[in-house]
Task: inverse folding
């Protein structure tokens, strides 16, 4: 039980971690680029699919 | 909702007219995957270039900004010609004007690819290679990927031109090739700003 409690504290006391193991985030500009491109890669497919659906729906009116 | 005349032999089932042709929809899906591919390359490029101490790195040749800017105008002109060719095909079908506009689009595309090729040969002679630095690797990877797409689109335009001459071209096929050419033209300014002007 003590072990479990001890392990659960680690995330709280550790510094911020980044999931990409190959991205060397060494400065603020790189960190900003990392966030921006993560947002781009997340939103782009949604925007594309949404765009096609919107186009078809508009033509159907 | 629009309907077509019944086409099923003997049955009176109305057939829905597709809002977007299969050719165009297939091309849109393909372009979507290609956009994601370019987005991934751009993502890697931005993170690596931001993390670098100096970008472009010291000792590496500089990219030909002005020649490529002029070459970009050639590509944009080809996009405009494609736009005009499509409207000409819709209005006049297999007219000489449509064929001429498609041929102009194709030749402008060939000029763009040729000038890029000449610039690459010069850059290689100056020492910018895939292995000379991350700068070179990203340049050839990103711009090379675009060049492969441009060559593919030029081949598509050639097929379009041949079908126009034979009188066998369908509007849906024209739409699909036009979409791909617009993709090649549309993605270029993003790559130019990111790679050449960074």
Result:
């Amino acid at each position: 039980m003590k072990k479990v409690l001890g392990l659960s504290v680690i995330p709280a006391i550790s510094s911020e971690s980044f999931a990409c193991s190959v991205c060397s985030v060494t400065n603020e500009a790189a960190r900003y680029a990392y966030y921006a491109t993560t947002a781009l890669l997340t939103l782009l497919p949604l925007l594309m699919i949404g765009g096609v659906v919107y186009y078809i729906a508009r033509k159907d009116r | 909702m629009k309907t077509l005349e019944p086409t099923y032999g003997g049955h009176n089932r109305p057939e829905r007219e597709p809002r977007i042709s299969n050719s165009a929809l297939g091309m849109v899906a393909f372009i979507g995957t290609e956009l994601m591919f370019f987005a991934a390359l751009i993502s890697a490029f931005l993170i690596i270039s931001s993390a670098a101490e100096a970008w472009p790195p010291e000792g590496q040749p500089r990219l030909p900004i002005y020649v490529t800017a002029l070459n970009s105008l050639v590509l944009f002109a080809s996009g405009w010609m494609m736009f005009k060719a499509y409207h000409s095909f819709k209005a006049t079908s297999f007219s000489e004007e449509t064929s001429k506009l498609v041929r102009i689009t194709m030749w402008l595309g060939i000029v763009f690819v040729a000038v890029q090729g000449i610039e690459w040969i010069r850059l290689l002679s100056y020492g910018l290679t895939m292995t000379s630095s991350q700068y070179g690797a990203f340049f050839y990877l990103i711009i090379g990927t675009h060049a492969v797409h441009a060559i593919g689109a030029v081949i598509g335009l050639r097929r379009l031109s041949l079908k126009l001459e034979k009188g066998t071209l369908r509007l849906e096929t024209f739409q699909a090739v036009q979409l791909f050419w617009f993709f090649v033209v549309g993605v270029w300014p993003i790559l130019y700003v990111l790679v050449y002007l960074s």
